Amino acid sequence: MSTTRTTTPQLRNSLNFSGGPGALPESVLQQVQQSILEVPEVGLSILGISHRSDWFASVVAELENNIRLLLQLPNNYHVLFLQGGATQQFSMIPMNLLPGKSAPAEYLHTGYWSGKSIAEAQRVGNIHTLWDGTATGFGSLPKDEELDFAADAAYFHYVSNETVEGLQFHHVLGRDDVPRVCDMSSDFLSRPCSAERYSLIYAHAQKNIGPAGVTVVLVRDEALKDAPNNLPGFLDYRSHINAHSIFNTPPVFAIYVVLLITRWLLKDIGGLSNMEAINRSKAALMYHALDESNGFYRGRAAHADRSMMNVSFSLPTSEIEKRFLAEAHSAGFSGLAGHRSVGGIRASIYNGLTVDAVHELVDFMNAFQKRS
Amino acid sequence: MSTTRTTTPQLRNSLNFSGGPGALPESVLQQVQQSILEVPEVGLSILGISHRSDWFASVVAELENNIRLLLQLPNNYHVLFLQGGATQQFSMIPMNLLPGKSAPAEYLHTGYWSGKSIAEAQRVGNIHTLWDGTATGFGSLPKDEELDFAADAAYFHYVSNETVEGLQFHHVLGRDDVPRVCDMSSDFLSRPCSAERYSLIYAHAQKNIGPAGVTVVLVRDEALKDAPNNLPGFLDYRSHINAHSIFNTPPVFAIYVVLLITRWLLKDIGGLSNMEAINRSKAALMYHALDESNGFYRGRAAHADRSMMNVSFSLPTSEIEKRFLAEAHSAGFSGLAGHRSVGGIRASIYNGLTVDAVHELVDFMNAFQKRS
């Protein structure tokens, strides 16, 4: 098919360091492209296949099974594919888990996204912010000794990876006797995560596992035993459980892309330990480049809390940052501007980004520093 | 790209009569396919472009403008692109429009989907079902003289086209001095609709205007003047208005496809009057085939209420219906099975279905009848 391009630079999907929606593997994009005119097993466009078809039921079943395999998820968990992003979960979680509880739910405020989750939860019920990094500008995460978890909390909520600030927890937080709820939107399926230690995990797709428009929720059966019976159907996890994620028309296309990603994780990558090793090596390359730059590239996060997904850094002046972004764009890179709330530069190195792409970025960074 | 097919019949996108997600025009599918690897104006995959990019802002702006052009929508209406389908709207509408009102909202129960909307609205507040076709099996719609609209209703809600039963209103219902709310999910942008007479119109995309995963809402500014201030952000229309539909990450891909459909409606079709003429001619072909079949094909809907979108009918026996579906499938047709709640046959002839496709189906139906 011919292509007309009105912009000058030759951007490359493989060099898309966007914070999200993020880059997907080339082999998956090829399959997605084919599906627009014809899903091989069906013979029809993915956009015109009924969500009630046997084929789509098999898509949901295979995807659920792949996620169970990747995470070694026990049978007492439900795997749901919902709409509304993490934002919808910010409300749905307290709506389903908070009613009837005497003690508040505990939240950590570790950055931009956990702040959003707290604001929405407070509209629903009684929330206690156990730790708040606002005063210190979210440059680091709490140390274990700073956290005094209540034994009677309704549940405990945290964000495993703060996308904006580039902060990531590298161990499981909280008490095993309090329901543990985690927003893994920006590191889900990027590494093994001890899913069986959580009551509820949620992640929108548009970082590591697919396009915007679908959100994965893993929920332990017993977490919902006290859920109220007066919720709107689409905000009640049990509606979606009972309907196997087809309570109403699901985002068929987005779910299919997530299936292709899980196939890629299982067959091409070989599972989450391998994926973690690759992601770890990409992050090591990036942070090595920062650390060896004599302060030209300044990492935002404390060393111990550095994210394997989002490498957030600044340059000596905002003028130099502008030039960095412009020259990177001319060289085919995209998505490197920091989040609008913090500025600077952010290189997001999700599953879909290859080690080679990170090498290319590091080479560009080194050359840019030399000529600056 | 090579294609492997594991099913025998050669299904054709152009002969997809599915009730939804439905067929999209071939020229749009071609553009969508190209965008998976590269959106021409950007040079990146549509799946990896940030929803905060200038390009996506231009997509939302052009799409909003196209809808305003197509419907001649006044400036006091907001155009929103949300997630969660019509089902989310079933709850959001009473949550936003009902609080503070003394009288109930009035609903018509004219079929499967209006029934769903009533059940969800009743969870939120005070609802009065003004007319109920349950007892008569939803074979027809109410006559004007059967409807005694209350002057003080909080709002009046109805479904313009009942997808399952194949019933469609062919005029605007209700009082002009009561806020009029309409679920146009299955006939939105299939014909002019006097949008300026409604306080709120909603439609998921997967019938006439795109893939599953995005829902269009048109809402008159004053309709929200009494909306409560304690709603979760994503359930408050004003959050989405203030954020120009980017309150949280929107379904970028689905919105882009809807943009392409509106371009097609404006440029290739030439507007909604032309689209209606085409849809009317397709429906005429289908109903003529039923009426001329000497009772072999039995239309479900009363003549006056026949839908231009969904032609629902039955054959003399369920055995013959099974054979009809099997032979149609072998001939390349798909999506012809009736909704699971009513059975029979349903030919959905949304915008994306061509007149030629309907001719092919009618030819098939005539031949099938002859050999039966």
Give an overview in words.
Two copies of one chain form a homodimer. Chain A is an alpha/beta fold and 372 residues long. Chain A has two domains: 240 residues, Type I PLP-dependent aspartate aminotransferase-like (Major domain) (Aspartate Aminotransferase, domain 2, 3-Layer(aba) Sandwich), CATH 3.40.640; 101 residues, Aspartate Aminotransferase, domain 1 (Alpha-Beta Complex). Chain A contains nine helices and twelve strands. A seven-stranded mixed sheet of chain A has the order 1-9-8-7-4-2-3, sandwiched between helices. A three-stranded antiparallel sheet of chain A has the order 10-11-12. A two-stranded antiparallel ribbon of chain A has the order 5-6. In chain A, a hairpin with a 4-residue loop joins strand 5 and strand 6. The N terminus of chain A is likely disordered. The interface between A and B is large, with 77 and 76 residues.
Question: Summary?
Answer:
The structure is a homodimer of 372-residue chains. Chain A has 372 residues and is an alpha/beta fold.
User: Strand portion of chain A, in percent?
Assistant: 5-15%
Number of domains of chain A: 2
The helix/strand class of chain A is alpha/beta
Q: Level of helix content of chain A?
A: 25-40%
Shape of chain A: globular
